[in-house]
Amino acid sequence: MVSRIIENTLVEEFKNKQLFTREEIVRFFRQFEPGMTAGTLGWRIHSLRRKNIIKTVKRGVYTIAKTPAFDPVFSEELLPLFQRIAEKYGELRYCIWDTAWLNEFVLQRAGKPMLIIEIEKQAVAPLYYYLKENFPHELFIDPKGKEIAFYVALSEYPVIVRRLIARSPVEKGSESRMNVPIPALEKMLVDLFTERKLFYFFKRREVANIFESALKKYGVNYTRMFSYAARREKEQEIKAFMLHNFEYLVKEIIVDQAPPVPLIKRKWRKTK
After folding, report:
1. pTM to 2 decimals?
2. Residue 164, class by beta-carbon neighbours within 10 Å (0-12 exposed, 13-18 middle, 19+ buried)?
């Protein structure tokens, strides 16, 4: 266990640094335990993370946990849907979220909200028909192109049911004593970047604003973000987009060579 005095000393040591490495933590602890082993160090770091004193930014890189975790407010429409899904498909992996959650990162609220339910591939169609019989919402099963433009866009409160990509980062959001599986903020950002047709109501400049505001306001695990982006074949493109629009936030984190920025300029406008 790490004593409270050492924990407070560590916070004071690193609080003014945006990032610090595992090697810096080693040097810090060896002031107090010169013979500390690698195994003991692992437990020390695990304890600091569990107590939310430090956060992992990427493998071997940390920051003091001074930023809050993303904790969205659940709408009245979302909770009843979650309860029915949990009753029938609780053994499967799924998540549910409301696009209105992204409005806190933009100056002007986007258009109509949209609920998105993602579930394992084999349950997409059964869940769609189950909800269609039990809820009054307009439901759409993995809409594409023209269906989004002509039907989803005209719906008052569309509910999208689609496949959950394998190893998608999903977390538990707490509301009314219920643990609701929701996408991690990292997943929401990658999906927003990747699926421009589905998230048509966020303009290109707003996407950059959403990324920048989210990264500044909340603790983000970049390893998790880029790992998920790689599964969506967007890792290098997202890295280039981030470096182009808000390099000051990510230049110490993105160490891999991204594609040349000019390839991105045609698609993304740099925010002021």
Report:
1. 0.78
2. buried
